[in-house]
């Protein structure tokens, strides 16, 4: 029987890992990911999984060991957060370049300085061009579901790319929420067994991983082939999401549309904020505001075409980013990419960037309502008042 | 066990010719000597950090390795091979693997003393069954002779040049073998390619250990040290004879000299053979050679004490 | 494992093994480094005592030993470093000028 439990987000991920029962889990603790590694370590200690743990001395070594273990031919999972992901940065590119289907749960947290342990998306957005697939979660349930699906997506022969499952620090990782866990055997059947490509541990056929391409120059070809994995990913993510839906009753796509049918303006967001925004949409709808929301799940690969289609009917779009690009003029990363996706489109809604929640700053209803009011005005007047907005920033003069 | 060279000639060669290390390089000889001593019934996974050996032995589509091989980055050979070793244990645990493997990493001194040190220390502490070999040529040779933590005092390098304000490298090298031994791993040793028998014996011991083992092996680089290439073995031998590079092992905490020079030659005999020390032989720098001699003497005395020979 | 990469220069991005893996061991054996040589080792078998020092010190796996007998050099890979000649205790190996040695080879085969 499926089990419905009250669980914190990190436990939801650890439970998914237990059910997947990966061969090797190299990890290093960091707030707020720690609980994943702790819970999983206990599972190993209690013999509830067959997995072997590598208590690496840093995240860089954790990802390096993950790469070694994956190239050796095993199924590998790890988890990190914030500075840990930043320290892995070099190895993230190597994991994707070597086409290793490693799964990483990243608990979103701000990047120093100043040091701050709370949620924002600076860490995962910093890794957005590292060649990893990125799936964002709204809550513990989605973190669990995404982790299970990640295995199938990463290991699919058309893809063979590492997958990052993203869940918001504290807001998801440390909040108790209702989570439905599938039966162990169903999960095992769903993820299936792993058939590695060119495993190091094939005694009959020794292979060389990580060769040097400096003299003959095929690097360009390898990078193009890697992009093909990303190009193939959406079809796989869609199929896996549907199949998962049939099994669990919770189907997944690239994004979720909420009240978009008749929306005149809309908000695009990802992560836990979409729960709050959904409520705000409900309230606004009671006041006859024609607002809709798109909850982006798949950020890498970026579903440009589908997003353009979904947003073409609205007059104004506010894109909520929990990180900044520090480009000076361009706005948050999701904003930049959504806007770029519209370049060729004959219909172009007006767009504004809303940067919110940096370093764990709360996204309250009144802030969302403020954005809604501005977007409604933009839709009505055809004018964007402020292209880049900071929601919840203390800006008033000290009186 | 009596080790005969004629027997080693029959063993499996894990490194083929056709690699692109410089002619006369000491590093491939170090690899050959160590791997010729590997058990004949095993399989190997070899790991390199980024460095001379990695770029020269795996130029796609050419690999010189007859073993399985992995390179991922510069500072993480020990972490990478620890992942491979754990994967091996995981598959064995699940009954999914029949074949036996040994795991060997070959890192240069830059990738071992400096940038790769944290990952090495972590892997040693975790106790992975692996042999980590530092092929030591006392500088970053791949990027063009920059000083490392293994470069000796007084040596010229492109980032420790000599000039009116400097005599070359102004710091002593660190004693990595002793630092590794301080991890209390089952086996740590210092070796040199001129003494193949000593190398092979240390390799055999390392392969037999159920845990981490470490060999720091002197492998001269004529490009970086500035000497004629045919003298690679001769210079390795001189480093031993001057006690600049003593041969010893630390087995389960027991320190032991594995060879002792018949007479301890003055360091000058070693220094004068190489262009990297040429500037020390000017009248202004007269005292510098004595500083090097004093340092070597002090290290040697400490080692003799540790080995119970003093 | 067979892997024909002879025309790799022309390969499209679709043809390479995924992740730049070299799917076959020891392919560098196909690569000739003998052309690097400016000096060539010559063996005087009369003097050789089969001590195998040359074998154990050669960086390029270029000393051919068969049935406990030093047979000569793998000139496809030997880079002419001279270590073998320098270390041979019996002076059984001499280094000669490569160009002259080649010319001699050619006139001998002509
Ligand atoms: S080193 Fe000299 S004597 Fe010894 S095997 Fe080689 S050629 Fe013969
Ligand atoms: S000259 Fe150098 S490369 Fe050639 S056989 Fe002798 S030692 Fe080996």
Structure description:
The complex is a heterotrimer of chains A (about 400), B (about 300) and C (about 110). By secondary structure, chain A is an alpha/beta fold. Chain A is built from 12 helices and 16 strands. In chain A, the strands form 4 sheets. In chain A, strands 10-12-11-14-15-16 form a 6-stranded mixed sheet, sandwiched between helices. Chain A has a 5-stranded mixed sheet with strand order 4-5-7-6-13, sandwiched between helices. In chain A, strands 1-8 form a two-stranded antiparallel sheet. Chain A has 2 domains: about 250 residues, 3-Layer(aba) Sandwich (Rossmann fold), CATH 3.40.50; about 140 residues, Rossmann fold. The model of chain A has no long low-confidence stretch (mean pLDDT about 95). Chain B has a single domain, classed as Rossmann fold (3-Layer(aba) Sandwich). Chain B is built from 12 helices and 10 strands. In chain B, helix 2 crosses helix 8 and helix 4 runs parallel beside helix 6. Chain C is of the alpha+beta class. In chain C, strands 1-4 form a two-stranded antiparallel ribbon. The longest helix of chain C is centred in the C-terminal third of the chain and has 12 residues. The mean pLDDT of chain C is about 95. Bound molecules: iron/sulfur cluster (2 copies). One iron/sulfur cluster binds next to helix 1 of chain C.
Most residues in contact: chain pair: A-B, 46 and 47 residues
Helix fraction bin of chain A: 40-55%
What's the total number of strands of chain C? 4
Q: List cofactors, ions and other ligands.
A: iron/sulfur cluster
- Backbone shape of chain A: globular
Judged by helices, strands and strand pairing, the structural class of chain A is alpha/beta
What's a concise summary of this model?
The complex is a heterotrimer of chains A (399), B (310) and C (110). By secondary structure, chain A is α/β, with parallel strands linked by helices. Chain A contains twelve helices and 16 strands.
